[in-house]
Amino acid sequence: MILKTKKIAKLGNHILFKNGIKGSVEKVNEYTVIVNITENKSYLEFEGNRKI
Fold first, then answer.
1. Is the separation of the CB atoms in 33 and 42 below 8 Å?
2. I need a surface site. Which of 1, 4, 22, 23 has the fewest CB within 10 A?
3. pLDDT tens digits along 1-33
4. How far apart are the first and last CA of the chain?
5. What whole-number distance in Å separates Cα of residue 2 and Cα of residue 19?
6. Distance between alpha carbon 28 and the CA centroid of its chain, in Å?
7. Measured distance CA(9)–CA(14) in Å, rounded
8. Residue 40 to residue 28: CA distance in whole angstroms
9. Bridge partners of 28?
C-alpha cells in the first residue's frame, strides 16, 4: 500500500516543481495555490509568470 502525505502550502513558501519551475506562494485557496514563478527551466510559458 502506498500512502501519500498531504502537504499544505502557506503564503510566502518557496516551491520547486518536478519540471524545473521555482516560485513562491502568492495566494492559498481551498484546493489550489497561486505561485509567482521566479525561475523557469522548462519549455512551458505562463502568462504573467503565475501558475495555479
1. no
2. 1
3. 555 556 788 999 998 888 889 999 999 998 888
4. 30
5. 23
6. 11
7. 9
8. 21
9. 33
Q: What are phi and psi of 3, to 5 degrees?
A: -110, 135
Residue partners of 25: CB distance under 8 A and separation at least 6: 9, 10, 11, 12, 13, 14, 15, 33, 34, 35, 36
Q: Are 14 and 22 in contact (CB under 8 A)?
A: yes
Report the 3 state secondary structure along the chain.
Answer: CCCCCCCCCCCCCEEECCCCEEEEEEEECCCCEEEEEEEECCCCCCHHHEEC
Residue 35: CB atoms within 10 Å: 23
pLDDT band at 36 (very low <50, low <70, confident <90, very high): very high
Cell of 25: 506562494
